[in-house]
Design goal:
CATH topology: Metallo-beta-lactamase, Chain A
Radius of gyration: 19 Å
Shape: globular
Helix content: 10-25%
Largest sheet: 7 strands, mixed
CATH architecture: 4-Layer Sandwich
Structural class: alpha/beta
Strand content: 15-25%
Order of helices and strands: EHHEEEHEEEEHEHEEEEEHEHEHEE
Length: 375
């Protein structure tokens, strides 16, 4: 369902993949079945071309330049991750809430299921964003960052969805097994940034269920409107340099608007979007996996609050923390920092447990449930 041209082009080497793929292993230690799964998880081959202002010289580009790694590259990052210990993990069991959902979606509600996976309810519609149910965010089920807590609900327990949104193709946002399960158990479209559709087609998602959009493009399904919006990030599932686009999303229905940030760094696009909308009811913003060595492609909590204010949001729901250990800060630091920043700027903050459903108009979940899990 994409109107954008695809053609073959020579793939390029990805220098930023040191951050996206911090774990490598000799192929000889994997058996044939594991190797086949790794190959499948890679998705479509790189080298396609797209008719987009964001696509130049064989890869997608940020509108605002983004530094990704310091000198030393991916190898030094991988070594530091391998030797950093447990400070990025909770000190005990993460408390979960087993969600129960009504037959009809609410006017505005959200259930954070861990990391960047969020079930949104808007204008009576169900929209699932960045679904990741696998144990690891990795091409291998035996190697790579592992969950610090289970997903609070099974894919089979989800309500009947209206759409699935994907922000970009990194393993902690685009999960092969979860896409396969949703293809089997749901009948809804997968709405994705340019290029990500090639992965889905390779994983046997029917063509009529793949919707690819560029920044500024909109897909409408009845009263539900999904708009692909700018983000400042990067892409690639192995050693390909930005072969697919990355995005944030505006989700609108029934007079309500939700912004899903997915993943990315602070950029001026937030203020531009805020100027176009009188009010955004809920901003779902990434607050974790930040580091001074990649300041432009992951927001820290202060930048997430700043982005929320730029967007003129009402309630801020922090995501992208607590589930996978992907950086060097302590496990609970993003939750503590965003709490302080929100208080300092009078921002209404929702900090639910994984699986805890928040409905607009009800009390905000504000318990400091992670306090006993700090290291």
């Amino acid at each position: 369902m994409s109107a954008h041209r695809r053609s073959e082009q020579r793939p390029r080497t990805d220098l930023v993949s040191g951050l996206a793929s911090t774990v490598s292993w000799p192929a000889r230690i994997l058996g044939p079945r594991a190797l086949a799964a790794v190959r499948r998880s890679k998705g479509a081959p790189a080298g396609l071309s797209y008719d987009s202002p964001q696509f130049r010289d064989g890869s997608f580009r940020n509108r605002e330049p983004a530094r990704v790694l310091e000198a030393g590259g991916g190898r030094s990052i991988a070594v530091e991750i391998a030797t950093k210990g447990n400070r990025g993990k909770p000190a005990g069991e993460v408390p979960l809430v087993r969600p129960t959902w009504p037959e009809q979606a609410a006017d505005c509600a959200a259930t954070w299921l861990g990391h960047a996976t969020v079930l949104l309810e808007i204008g009576g519609h169900w929209v699932l964003a960045d679904p990741v149910w696998s144990e690891r965010c990795s091409p291998s089920s035996g190697v790579g960052p592992r969950r610090t807590h289970p997903v609070p609900a099974r894919i089979e327990d989800l309500p009947r969805l209206d759409a699935v949104l994907i922000s970009h193709d990194h393993y902690d946002h685009l999960d092969t097994a979860s896409i396969a399960a949703l293809t089997r158990t749901q009948q809804v479209p997968f709405v994705v940034p340019l290029g990500v559709g090639a992965h889905l087609r390779r994983w046997a998602v029917p063509e009529d269920r793949v919707v690819e959009l560029d920044w500024g493009d909109t897909f409408t399904l009845g009263e539900l409107t999904l708009t692909c919006t700018e983000a400042r990030h990067f892409s690639g599932r192995f050693f390909d340099e930005n072969p697919t686009l990355w995005s944030s999303w505006l989700v609108q229905a029934g007079g309500r608007t939700v912004f899903f940030g997915g993943d990315g760094g602070y950029c001026t696009a937030f203020a531009d979007l805020g100027a176009e909308h009188d009010r955004i009811d809920l901003t779902v913003m990434p607050v974790g996996a930040y580091d001074t060595r990649w300041p432009d492609i992951h927001m820290d909590p202060a930048e997430a609050v700043r982005a929320h204010l730029d967007l003129r949001g009402d309630v801020l729901l922090p995501i992208h923390w607590g589930t996978f250990d992907l950086a060097f800060h302590p496990w609970a630091e993003p939750a503590d920092r965003v709490r302080r920043e929100a208080a300092a700027h009078d921002v209404r903050l929702a900090q639910p447990r994984p699986g805890e459903r928040w409905v607009a108009g009800e009390d905000l979940p504000t318990d400091e449930w992670w306090a006993g899990l700090r290291r």
